[in-house]
Amino acid sequence: xxxxxxxxxxxxxxxxxxxxxxxxxxxxxxxxxxxxxxxxxxxxxxxxxxxxxxxxxxxxxxxxxxxxxxxxxxxxxxxxxxxxxxxxxxxxxxxxxxxxxxxxxxxxxxxxxxxxxxxxxxxxxxxxxxxxxxxxxxxxxxxxxxxxxxxxxxxxxxxxxxxxxxxxxxxxxxxxxxxxxxxxxxxxxxxxxxxxxxxxxxx
Length: 203
Description:
Helix content is 51%, strand content 9%. By secondary structure, the protein is mainly α. Strand 4 (171-176) and strand 5 form a beta hairpin. The radius of gyration is 19 Å and the shape is globular. The model has no long low-confidence stretch (mean pLDDT 87).
């Protein structure tokens, strides 16, 4: 079971069913460079994929800020794998340089996938993210019906765009009782959306 720290308290609701749920806990802190390197090269090696050693060193150098945030490493690796495609078996520094390095990849994590949406869906996606980013300042998920009320589109379009945002791993939905809730998947993303809002970049 993996969950964000702010949801840890909700596990108390299932202690009657799973009394040992708190017995083995591991908090994920920043990675050391060695831990980050292992996280890059070892999982993909099981699928016959290799990251160039020079590329790995460059990634670690770019991401290390007194440790490496796992979410940053995950985003950069995912973008490299996405751009490489399913048939490539070697990822080198040329691809990393073409994408602009870690900083640009992180900066574009929100905007890049949304540019792939059609114009009308793109506008709805930004409206959804704007509403959720403002709510995330209190770490609050919102009922989907409440989010829909802030978006200017039919229900069918809202459901379609929300599903795409889930596929892009920007938001997640879940049920609390009979109510479907939605939230931005990580506060790192909410910070990026709020920064873009402050600059007037989200239209």
